[in-house]
Amino acid sequence: MSAPCGAISATRISVPLHSMSKKVRVRFAPSPTGGLHLGGVRTVLYNYLFARKHGGDFILRIEDTDQSRYVAGAEEYILESLKWAGLEPDESPERPGNYGPYRQSERKPIYAKYAQKLIDAGHAYYAFDTPEELEVMREKYKTGDNPSPQYNHTLRKKMRNSLQLDPAETRALLEAGTPYVVRIKLEPDQEVAFTDMIRGVVTFNTTSVDDKVLLKADGMPTYHLAVVVDDFLMEISHAFRGEEWLPSAPVHILLWKYLFGLEHMPHWAHLPLILKPDGNGKLSKRDGDRLGFPVFAMNWTDPRTKEPATGFRETGFLPAAFDNLLAMLGWNDGSGQEIFSLDELVEKFNMDRVHKGGAKFDYEKARWFNHEWIKRLPSSAYSDQVLPLFQAAGITIPAADLVQPPTPGPALMPEFPPVFGDPTLDGQPMAIGFIENDALPSRFQKILDLVKDRCHLLPDFVQQAGFFFQAPATVDLDAIKPKWTPAKTQFFAELIRQLELSATFEAAALEANFKEMAAAAAIKPGELLMPLRVMLVGAKFGPHVFDIAAALGRDETIRRIRHTLSLL
RNA sequence: GCCGCGUUGGUCAAUCGGUUAAGACGCCUCCCUUUCACGGAGGAAUGAGGGGUUCGAUUCCCCUACGCGGUACCA
After folding, report:
1. Distance of CA A2 to the CA centre of its chain
2. Catalytic site includes residue A540
3. Å between A394 CA and B29 C1'?
């Protein structure tokens, strides 16, 4: 993985692999143009994991150099998304460190100096071509073989720039305030090679790269200049970004060489793309709409088009699951393990095992990850998020059901131990939340724990547990009527009497008693279990029927049996 | 067109020259459960094509095909 040595050719630029002696500082640098999408969050995640693992800093830098694309609220949205995902930056516009400002628009004065330095050294030049002239040029030189002519070492000879113009003419143009851009001057036929942490040595020939604009007519830098200057000024040690940036890497390498020296350049890693599930190509918001799954971290409505997009948060994903599934989209630790807590990812993650190829997003698998996390976490970890969902569905949870009993003595703890029954997870950080939370679960939380095995998404809880708090609006009589007999009516009448008398109302005792009664009545328990379930739940689903009865309590259980009996 | 990057079951993927080519999701069957799940046991399903190198290629090299990305005063 060492960079090719400079001796291969006189014009070859190779990048030395400097040691990781300097402090790890990484950055996520989004442009605030809309919602934060899956690929973006994954880039954040990899940055975050890398920083944490190496005791470094994770910086959020807002790349808002294109005023025409600026979208109000996008920055706040990004911040909130990161907060939700638990991936908060150490330094950001809202939380400045010693390297501010953290918005490029606020750094505008900084860039001109570096552009000037490049011009003075002969590595950049003024170009006075108007956008219209550029359009004309592209049309004029367009051929079947070359559909998009580039402003490069050949074509720049035909354009209006300080390389062609007489120095006096250039000066005059500048003094007259003629709009101009600064372009990098690329010498043809140079090999530019660098070592990508994921792809190994990547080589480009400058002949195929154009003279990119560095400074725009409005004085703002383009991404190319800004990223290099800011990464230097912010002392970024490792630069991770999407694969779509790979083709412009040679420009950035050259800029580093001209401006700051290759020995200061960060290590690069170009992350594989996240692809749409069907067909090919980058996953986009459109695919989510089309296929019915979220693509953004949180709900996002474009302030201009008013076009809404749903988020993973609102769809009912747990942050732990979201991070977990994102991490696995392009990385694995080689062991076959798939469920990782954030802390565990910090420990195990490394760039060497990141894939080169893009991964198609599989929503079914994403749901599976969420399901796993819902099962593994105690409901106290997400009951606060689930509660509003019940309310939104018109189901009121009594305040008494939300209070947690006082701290239990050790003897009471076994009531809810199976949460971490999976031995492979024992002792893992994810259990900490449970251990720290030494209060007994509220009734609401107990009920969530009772049904969580069948929930993939948080809103599933409403469907699965709603009947505990609200008597079913309809009872599926068709499920019991066909096989109903007077003997069964008798049985349930007797059952009510027994329930009224029973000393305790605990599942195991209820079940034992129920079966005794069934035997006495000479009816197979199975014949009676389903009717009881339908009476309590309203339909054929839910946890064990005696767990339901116990959770419902004596009065409500009897009330529901009576109600159904009256309907039969 | 040109440049760059990719390509192991439907999907995510392990393998770092020798394996019956792991595992997971999804799908199917069975067990558990007289509900739905969870859990358990099985099953179907894979190296883009062609050349090399090698005693031996999924693995290394080359070519082709295909896909993606870039080719903006957008990032």
Report:
1. 33
2. no
3. 41
Specify the CATH architecture of the domain A477-567. Answer: Orthogonal Bundle (1.10)
Write the ipTM: 0.96
Q: What is the full per-residue pLDDT of chain A (568 aa) written as tens digits?
A: 333 333 233 344 444 444 446 899 999 999 999 999 999 999 999 999 999 999 999 999 999 999 899 999 999 999 999 999 999 999 999 999 999 899 999 999 999 999 999 999 999 999 999 999 999 999 999 998 899 999 999 999 999 999 999 999 999 999 999 999 999 999 999 999 999 999 999 999 999 999 999 999 999 999 999 999 999 999 999 999 999 999 999 999 999 999 999 999 999 999 999 999 987 789 998 899 899 999 999 999 999 999 999 999 999 999 999 999 999 999 999 999 999 999 999 999 999 999 999 999 999 999 999 999 999 999 999 999 999 999 999 999 999 999 988 765 544 443 443 333 333 333 333 433 344 455 789 999 999 999 999 999 999 999 999 999 999 999 999 988 888 999 999 999 999 999 998 888 999 999 999 999 999 999 999 899 999 999 999 999 999 999 999 999 999 999 999 999 998 8
Is the CB of residue A533 inside 7 Å of nucleic acid strand B?
yes
Burial class (CB in 10 A: 0-12, 13-18, 19+), A526: exposed
What's A284's DSSP letter? -
Rounded to whole angstroms, how far apart are CA atoms A441 and A447?
Answer: 9
Give residues 361-390 of chain A lying near strand B (Cβ < 7 A).
Answer: 362, 364-365, 368, 375
Helical segments of A425-553, H only: 432-436, 443-451, 460-469, 486-501, 507-521, 525-537, 545-552
CA dist A26 and A237 (Å) reads 6
Residues carrying CATH 1.10.1160.10, chain A: 275-368
The number of C-alpha atoms within 13 Å of A160 and in the hemisphere containing its C-beta is: 17
Separation between Cα atoms, residue A267 and residue A350, nearest integer Å:
14
Q: Where in chain A is the domain with CATH 1.10.10.350?
A: 477-567
Listing DSSP states for A153-172 in one string gives: TTGGGGS-BTTTS-HHHHHH
Nearest nucleotide (CA of A333 to C1'):
B14
Task: From the options 3.40.50.12780, 2.40.50.100, 3.40.50.300, 1.10.1160.10, give the CATH code of A275-368.
Answer: 1.10.1160.10
Catalytic residue among A185, A212, A216, A285: A285
pTM, full prediction: 0.91
Say how far apart CA A565 and CA A286 lie, in whole Å: 51
CA of A95 to C1' of B25 (A): 40
**CB contact set of A561 (below 8 Å; sequence gap of 6+):** A492, A495, A496, A532, A535, A536
SS3 state of residue A82 = helix
A495 touches strand B (CB under 7 A): no
d(CA A119, CA A328): 45
